[in-house]
Fold GH18 domain-containing protein.
Amino acid sequence: MIYNLYSSRILRKVSSVLTSSLLLGTVLAPSAILARTSSSEIGITLDDYALPFPVAPFFGQGVTMVPFRSIAEALDIRVRWDAAAKSIIADGTDSGGSKQVILTLNKKTAKVNGQSVSLSAAPVQIKGNVLVPLNFFSSQFGASVAWNGAMKKVEILSPKEKMHLRAFYAIKSFSHVSLIPDFDSVAFGWARLNEQGEFITNGKDFYLPQAAGDVTPESIVGDAVSSGTAPYLMVYSGDEQGQLTKLLGDEDLMDRALDGLFDLAETKGFQGVMLDFEGLGLIGPKGAGVAGVAKVQIQFTEFVHKASSRARAQGLKLSVALQPLNGWFKGYDYKKLGALVDDMVIMAYAYGDQQSPEPLPQVDEAIRLSLAQVPKEKLLLGVSFASENEASLNAVVGLAKRYNLKGAAFWRLGQPGAAELGALFERVERNQSK
């Protein structure tokens, strides 16, 4: 999971900037929308990142009207259209539990769990899209909504919600050992491959820590289990010295590495195993060609297949951390790997200088490319605490929420300050098992 460390040795010029500005025109009625050009449209952001919409919001009679379906689905609200009744039916949840809302065109009364509720304006339809009052989302589904007059945009913050949170514990993470119970799972980076492609637990960075009084690797793992946090044993490797190439090309070496990994997982009380093999299938002048990429994809998939069989036999979960599909490393067949593992982490970071917030359009693209190959229920968005800050965490975590992914995985404990952790847990629920 040190993509931000390993990749920087090879790739330091990967960056992308996407900016957009939408200006506001005077609008008094829905019909005026049809005549406007794109330069006069109002923008919408959800969790500090632009939300695409089929028709623009508009102001009418003192009310901001916004496209319902695009916002609702991004808030994980299920939407269906009743053509006969000219009504839109929305099923979602709020702090009180499940909720069904029925909105009817040109009617200022909605049905909320069967009860009549007044609206500030009646829903209207433009180009086949239903628009509703902006404050509907705050009053019925807990989102925070606001109009930013200076930027000419509607700003929506999704409500705090539960999603699977995974933390990585490696390389000076002990200062945050007390935070382990706040996460649903923790991957302990206590093993790696050496330059010969052999599984070891005494590397210079990823190693099994020595006992310090009553604090031992076993006690840390045991405490995690007691708090309801699932501990994973993570093995890391890059391919700087060809160690991964050696491993994947040698059947005996693969079997011995898997023996060491799963024996250690069993003896130390881990509940899962995570593979973090980075640097496979580099494209470019010094990288692999199409045939080389295809070969390494097959080899890595075969290794994961072997690991999957071992995990099932021992009753362990299996996870992989993969470099993003819009990155430089193409040695990962997401679709086949997704069928073999319990979940996977999209390492959607290290696009830029690794000290500034990641470019959201590229993070967004990495998620969408992954979703085309792997069910959302198996995907966790990788987030680097080294890149993000108190202000930027909302947007990147918001993308995991927007696409309703399984959750997010954070590299690594030991890095974030109190402000960053506070910002994170304002947007998502801590592990409730403890």
About this structure: The chain has twelve helices and 22 strands. The first strand starts at residue 43 and ends at 46. Residues 290-314 form the longest helix (25 residues). Confidence is low (pLDDT under 50) at residues 4-39.
